Queue: 4 jobs
Job 1
Amino acid sequence: MTERRLPPPLRFLLAARRSELQGLEALAGTCELVVRISALVHALQKERGYSNLTLCSPPRRLQPTLAGLSQDAASVEAQARQFLDGEAADSAQGSGRARLLNCIAFALFRLDELPALRRHVRDRSVPVEDADSRFTQVIGSLLAVVFEAADSALDPGVTRILVALLNFMQGKELSGQERACGVTGFTAGYFTDTQKARMLGLAANQRRSFDTYAHYAEGAARQCWAELQQQDPPVQRMRDMAQHTSSEQRVDGALAELWFNLSTARIDAMREVESLLAEALAQQCNRRIAETRQELNDRRLLLSRYADHASGRAPSMLYSVQSRVVDTPPPDGMGSELERSILDMMREQTLRLQRTDDALNAVRGALDEKKRIDRAKLLLISHYGLTEQAAHERLQRAAMDAGLALADVARQVIGQLGGQSGGQLDGN
């Protein structure tokens, strides 16, 4: 019997499973986008790092290397844009993904600013701090796409990997920002109090991001990160050195390149972890799609057999599951066995969907923290007219002063500014 000739309850039972399959197939496309964005972020992080070093070094010494990195980043960007063009053409996949698509639009807007920024860096017509900030804004917009992808995923296993990847990318990005700050300080020969505080904050936030990553990561990706952490001591020693500098206690400006090289080696090694996460993501998507497709085919066969046995009759139990005692022994062989199988299938599907929701709620805890931080930043921007970066720095300073996690400070800000202006963060 063809599917369209099945009784309505059976058709809808199959439609529910088919909807899951379609959702997983769309999710696989989203995960591929995330992998491409991860590669683009890495390329832009390398370009940003060498842009900072170039602007702090004698003219033309590092220009050839920077030109090659800019070309590499532009090539990766072109590949990502080509993939996005295909996504935009598939309007069916846009349903229920408005926030994700909006983030993509904003990221593309930021990416459009890169050619002009590259010209300014090449011409040395932009301060190093401004160049760093503008690259960071571009990267931040791409990380927002990864966040929305994780938040919109409907499979717990996939969501878990996406949350791990997001937090690892955030930690890696903070490492890149720390690299830039260190280059500026070591080039000058000492770190100001503001720069010291920023270095401490960036290191602390890295630890939190990587701790969250380790909580959600599994298998080879987690083991690889554990091994890479053993390479941190040289970076930590230079962090300590930075904290002991002053205008009276300067260090050799040549240490800037040593710091840059050590930080770059550390960040480049992190790319291996991202690659392992990307591999795990693809495997999980493929596995779930294969499982769901097989289950759909099995159910289609079972329900067709039942419909053929019932000769087109729609038993009342299919319309009112509660009207029948499921555990009653079947009185008439094949037909009742199939009836019971269908009832079990409906109950199992309901329970499985509930378990999926519970698992998703559990794994999204880290995403909820980021939402809270973003809301707090928006409140600070609205109340005090701050830029996004200034709002984030205010939250970081408040967290450091109070010895609290950033998410806890964000909760306080929401409580203070959600219903009133003012509070303890005034004037910070």
Job 2
Amino acid sequence: MTPAQPVAQAPFPAEKAVVVGGGIVGVCCALYLQREGYAVTLIDPAAAGDSTAKWSCGQMAVSEVIPLSKPGILKKIPGWLLDQKGPLALRPGALPGILPWFLRFLACARHSKIVEIAEDMATLTHQVYEDYAPLLAACPDKTLMGQRPIIELFDTPAGLEHEREHLALRQALGFKSEVLDAAAISDLEPSLAGKFSHGLLFPDWRAVSDTKGFIAALTQSFLDQGGVRVRGQVKRIDEVADRASGVTLADGQRYAADQVVIAAGTGSRQFFGQLGAQVPLAGIAGYQVLLPTPGVEIRHSVIYADGGFCFSPMSRGLQIGGTIEFAGPNAEPNFKRADIILEKARKILPRLQLDNLEYGVGYRPFLPDTKPVIDRSSRLSNVFLAFGHGQLGLTLGATTGRLITDLVVGRKPAQDLTPFSAQRFALVGGHA
């Protein structure tokens, strides 16, 4: 008698995950979930790469763990209101609406709080390159992330001296820096020879030479591995009991999901009511100017500290930007800020060619303590939160993706995520 043959079992269907937000954080969450075996749908209204990170300086700023609320910032506020050409601008009309957020921001300017924030952020930024490695290895282009360090320049010794305390804190947290004199600056950047005598080199930092292409390449890798990307606007999270069952788009299309990740930057705010999140998330404008044929060679990403902007050599040209503006929700871009950047840049590099220049603006999703939210929703148990990365979205994209995936699968993350809880603002009120 022939023994009975075992019946072939159909493969267990993969759980479905939906990631809302196709910027750098969203696509990295999607890639890490995909690596865990989830069938992932990534939803964003814009084309791949056309996100806030496109208009960034492209830096992997791994030691940029000191919050924006540095000591002495309170004294600068009147100046910001009076001088709209400064590196930090505050629109007078925006002040009433943003005041609650700003007061929380100022509360983080205490020395003890700055040390606490820096220590928390360092637990994330130490893993940046390790976390990006498997994602970049799956991309055909092996030059997506450069290897050159970043330079920061100052007009006077006082500027460098002002950074000493922060450098010491960074060093204590395991990050490196080197002081540069005029000769060293000239060797590194011949175009800036004779213009600066005081600077820093950050050997731990790297730069992306095409921020749009970087996100687009990661997105294509996600698609090549079976992921689905949908261009559309999510209208709501669908609910059953205390769980999300999927999302519905503005056009009525519905996508079922076992797990949902909200990684939509400032766009995450629309879901806070559903998520039970009392999070003071603000969009702070960062302006950029792109010169396709600058006529001047800049070899490294160069931060000009006293000018409040950065020279970033990109494959599409020289990008100049980084100045920020507190403008309030739904404010129209003020491209005079970009003009100011360009004016300052030409004082340093008068030979800059302005043919076919392009202006851009990205709205950085900032929380008052400049730490992101990496957490699970307190109301919908299968919805996860990944937003508020400020100017470190590009830097922390992959690390956030790994940590969110740990939460989704029920694995204890290697880092303590308590400092990045969405509930850390609940005791002092809700939205800004």
Job 3
Amino acid sequence: MIIVDAWTQLAKDLVYTLNRLGQKNVVISLEPDGFLPSYIENPFLYYLGNRQKSGNPLFFNQVIVPEFWEIQGDAHRGWIRQQNKTRANIVYLPDSPFRQVKAVEWLDNHGSVKSVDHYNKFGEIFAKTHYMEENQPFQTIYYDELGYERIIENHVTQDILLMVEEGMRVFHDRVAFYISFLKERQYDLSQIIFNSLATSFFVSLGLENSGNDVLVWQEEIHNELPGNMQFILENRSIRCNKILVPIPETYHHIQQLISSEYKNMFEPFEYMYEWTKENQYKKQVLIVTNSDQIEQLQTLVESVPELTFHIAAPTEMSATLMDYIRYKNVVLHQTVSQEQLNDLYQQCDIYLDINYYQEVPLSIRRAFLANQLILAYSHTIHQRQYVAQEHIFEVENTNNMIELLQRCIENQIIFEEELIRQRKSAGVRDGK
């Protein structure tokens, strides 16, 4: 069994890798999320009933608002306005380019959040959180498919009230609620694989029966081990007895921090990915951006004329970017569609993460899965886990980035070596 705190990209990568290795596990994501795939279990959603029906996520301008109120939005968020006053913020589904509604934050007259509507993938409100003063949540109510209150979570006392046919069950915190769910479902609990030292760790710790649990540590380590990791090492009576570490740099760092008696408790773990293409070593560079502020773009374009720079933006481009049309080795793609982006990821073999401000959703990951060589500046990088440390540059060392680009396009062997470095840095099995 796999238990993750939330259905993040790291959780998805873990599950995908274990499936590829032949480990078909029940997967439980603990955080209530209306957009979970049907094959992912969630304790909250389980008690809300079967919502396997037709329906689509709500588009941002489909939120129901009072008459004469206006819905506005950009690529990053939406908002609801009454004349000149903002009445609500619309939160989009993360890492999605389609402006799908994840939540709506309703505001009071002072601009503080008073309640939040949580939406699911069918465009329905499945939960509502109410707030006290100073944007502090005090209660979330979860609704079943008929609209009845099924779960009430008190964020002040941590109590959870569950309404079932037999009556009301009371749990004093989420961990107790989760453990009760696991027992009720009668899962095989002999081994739990979890990826956090937060909630999923406490679930493992709270189970009474013996087990052989495994922590997959997907985060960085700084100058010392986290307290709960140290607790695992020093308490051999608990269920967790193995820690897997996907990122090689982190694994080696941990080995330096721990004494010899604990070293055998750690093992490297390598991800497997579903690559979208192989690198063809083409002299085609891709930059996907929502901003016209692209670090050292002119210098790079002029210094490496052998490269064709494709600059893609989901929106219309400013005059600043449009001015680059004067360069023969620059191709501009404004108001680019997802289909056009797909073609560009297939066409290009180098990605430059050098634009400021927010990342266009999933741009860097898509470049990584397309086996594009990713180079970045330290102050523009958006997804560090996909970029080798040797491929991150300071702006004053732009010449080093230029030199690396030139070496790669002149020598295919060097190009491939840098790709292997990138994949190994990201914890890819055998760098392939």
Job 4
Amino acid sequence: MSENHLSELRFDELPLDDRIREGIRDAGFEFCTPIQADTLPIALKDKDVAGQAQTGTGKTAAFLIATYQRLLKSDAPTDGPRNPRAFMLAPTRELAVQIANDAEVIGKHTGLVVGLAFGGTDYEKQRNQIAAGIDILIGTPGRIIDYFKPGVFKLDQVEVAILDEADRMFDLGFIKDIRYLLRRLPDPDKRLNMLFSATLSQRVMELAYEHMNEPELIRIEPDKVTADRVRQAVFFPSNEDKMPLLIGLVREMGEGRIMIFVNMKREAERVQDYLEANGIHAKAISGDVPQNKRLRMLMDFQSGDLAVLIGTDVASRGLHVPDVQYEINYDLPQDPEDYVHRIGRTARAGASGDAISLGCETYVMTLPDIEEYIGHKIPVANYNHDDLPEIIRPKPRRRKPSQQRGKPGGGRSGGGRSGGQGRRRGPPKR
């Protein structure tokens, strides 16, 4: 077993339909991740699972494989309209789209039809697709209710119910909608139920026991997968050197997906403007970006048409972006747990990656807490101030008079090489 395999269980050892095996091979999967190895043997026996696992651990593939297996081994009703036989709830539009994309790959050879329901776009298109008949319905609670109440589809044929990122459902205020939908499904003992959450808190477990059939609890250590497989380093730039250092690092990285994290939305926009002004194609993702544009950004980033994606912890949480080679903390996070979530973007499903942090004057005070949380010192990397690139300042953005200036996320605006404050710190670069 190579170092990238997180368990010794192969997918071909599981009792799966050959059509699913083909989809798994198409996805490039061979070995199960820990959450897959622990949950699939249970779910494939039609037993309910409540799993503690974070984004990027392979839980999506786990519940998709279990869902397809359950649907393929049972006969679909032949009388009346074709209603969903599997029902998957996600807290955000982006996550729903990502689940659907993964479902199309894994289920490519099954003949089962996937439908999407999420707010913000394509109301009639989504409605018509669902009304035409689907096997698997994936979506956000509000939009699904919008279609359910007028009778676009029924829930009485559901054999599989999936609830993803249950803790975020509570945080976003969806719990009433979720309970409304779950109470209209067949009884829990007549369906396969799977719930996943970053934490199996008391409120999540109350939901599980109310709407599931004696679920088996599976817990995967939340931080182990992400932190152990990432090559980490921290620079200590002055605020004036911070932007030139970032641009220099991005240029050195060359090809490969790069995610940059900042602490404030306004700073994400500023970083985007500087990168674009200096010939680096970058986009900032935030809640203010229209849904169509957000989805386009993600598709471009995944395809390689967009080199750099910038975001805050709030805007980027829950996004599943495969094969991120580099993660840069332009701002060190103020919450140590956010650091682990960020660097985990480069360590999905057993992959490795590089995480680079800029411990600037504004945010360096959070570094000791981060190192205490992850249990080790982050290796120090050095730079030579005189080797930093000369950079172009972007033109100021035009803003509406009503927009208030936010606090800068990285101290002074810092665009050029000035001040001579970028002295080497720490041991020589290794």
